[in-house]
Amino acid sequence: MPSPQILTSGPELRSSKEPTQLQTPTRGSPPGAQPSAKCEDTVPPSQGTFRQAFSWGNQRASGGDTAKDLGLFRRSSRLFQSFRRALDQGVVAVEIQVPAAPEVAPSPRTSLRGMDGVSGQAPTGVGSEELGPESEGQSVVDLITERQLLAAFEQLQRLEKGLLAAKASRAFEQDPTSFARRAWDVCLHYDGLAAEIGAIVRETLGPDGVDGATLSELARVVRAEEEAHPVSPADGDFLCTPRRWRQRWEDAVQRSAQERVQSVAVSEAPGEAEGPSHLALLLAELGRVVRRDLQKVWRDVQPAYVAAGFRAWETYLQAFHRAVAQRLRELAQDPCGCEQPYVLLDWATNVYSSSVLLGAPDLPLPSEPLPPLLPPDVWDRLESKDASLLETKMTSCFQNILRQEQSCWEVAEAPDMLQGLYHRPLSIDVHMLVDQHVEAARAVSARLEATTLRICARAFGLFVPSFEKACVESEAVSEPYLGAYINACEELRTSLPATFPGAFDELQQPLAAAICSFQKQLLQVLQRDAQPLFRVVCSKSWLTEDTLQPVMDKVVAFALRLSHVTPPCAQETLHELHRYVVREYLAQALRPCERFRGSKRVTASQRMSLDAKTIDDTFRGLGSEATWLVMAIPCVADILGETNKDNIGRHLEKLIRSYPDIRLEHIRAILALRGLGRLRNQHLLRHTQDLLRVEGPETTGTTRDRVLFGEIKVCLSVNVLLACLCFSTW
Predict the structure, then answer these.
(1) Where does 379-519 sit in CATH, by number?
(2) Cβ contacts of residue 661 below 8 Å, gap of 6+?
(3) Per-residue pLDDT tens over the stretch 28-60
């Protein structure tokens, strides 16, 4: 019976460049105490081996962050379970006695340097020849350190096959702890090789980069591992379990892209009020970094992986896409991003997919479309925030337009002339403001475009009445400015609905009201000057002098200013001016300063007819098309000068039919001007009363622009009262 052999620890596995690591006391030992021989063997030597030999792998793979790579221990759970079963059976002890098999003597050279210095003696019957020779005398750690990945993998494969062969021959039946230790080291070396693969991936896009030969070897190693471990073994052997290095490679690519994207930052330039915002600069830098990295992947990295059948370009592109999406979501939560939502939306929609980045000809997109950069809820929140900010911005912009116009009023700066018309940049400013925001919103989404149109229309709808009020209440607004604003509002009233169909239709009425208000304000300038001149009508001097000519001179001068107003509005204003002159002339005639009798009445009728002709000729020459005003003054003149009293009723009928807005008080004033007897007045008033019932404005559809007598107020003079007394029923 051979004597029992003591299983002692062999030399620790380490790199030739790494100094010997000092032993640390076990947990619970007093400070300074040296571990005993028993304590040394209670911890598997392979664990210390891995921690010493692969400390460089952890540092190179994660930049000193060992917490991430400690997961390499946990990923061999079945190995831990096997090793735990060996511990439970009491195999691991201070002195493990393993009976030697009589047929094969233990080899003194079975130091397992072929297993990278795995400590412990090989079980009886397992020689170094069975575990495989070393690769030119280098350990697995040295090969991984020098990034001879394929050689390291092949050596691990030989060790793995040797262990499996030994296990199959029951060489470890009397010493399962030794098998567990060796299998433990093999698995940890596999994980060390995987960690080096991750380090290579993370260095690929770094400043120094990785040469194509190393990348090609990495791809071949991953393919070789997939071929060596195609499926999980039926018996659950952890050595033959697929290690899924391709998935680890993809995860490393994702982490690399994540680190590259998250590291993008720009320094703020304090004191710069103008220029791109910090968020815009950050996104520009992000796009530059992503584009540069993807170009490097397509130009240098992708060809190195092609031979091994790796979809490197698609993997990197999707990894960067996910990393950029995560960064944008973080920026959307940032206060800077929340205050500038359009910058994020525009970059995600127009910059990211344009020739600036993914749309470049040298960066082909994958066959399957990439998912959206921002989830729908984040996108909706950014659009809603952008709409809220746009409302405030539009209100501020329109207020700035009003302040600019008011500053021009205060300095009495004359408006420009454009193609013979008064011009102010109001219409251009509004168009540019709306066009700019609508076009920008259209570039993001149709929904944001529709929202922007509604906001612009609402803000402009609030601006029009406030601008109108400011113009009307200001005494500094001159006639040329009023003409320029009439032109601007008319241009906006026609061009905005044509440019943006359906969006500005509701602004037709406010703009038309503003034009009408400006026209009235424009006419008031003439009315203030011409009103005193009408007071001489139907006076003694009026019979012998041409008192109407000063009024006509002012009308002609006013009409010259109207020639610089857009033709439709100028014609409307000229019609109003024509109506004003006829109305004021009749109003003064129906409350005369003198009562004409006999020959003076005939002379007054003739003068009135001449004035009517002068008014008609003047306005015809100015281009007025208000021909319906022509008959008003001549009809009154005919009644005043009619010698045959029986014909007066016919003149009244003509007047009532031509101007259905006339009322009984106007008829009484005309009869008082004519001066008839009681019975004649009574007959004529009854007759006209019947006509007024039939020819009232309700039945003729008289509109405001055809109102003449309805705006003439008749005072109750003595003559009018006498005419009223002639008709006792009134």
Answers:
(1) 1.10.357.50
(2) 697, 702, 706, 707, 708, 709, 710
(3) 333 333 333 333 333 333 333 333 334 434 444
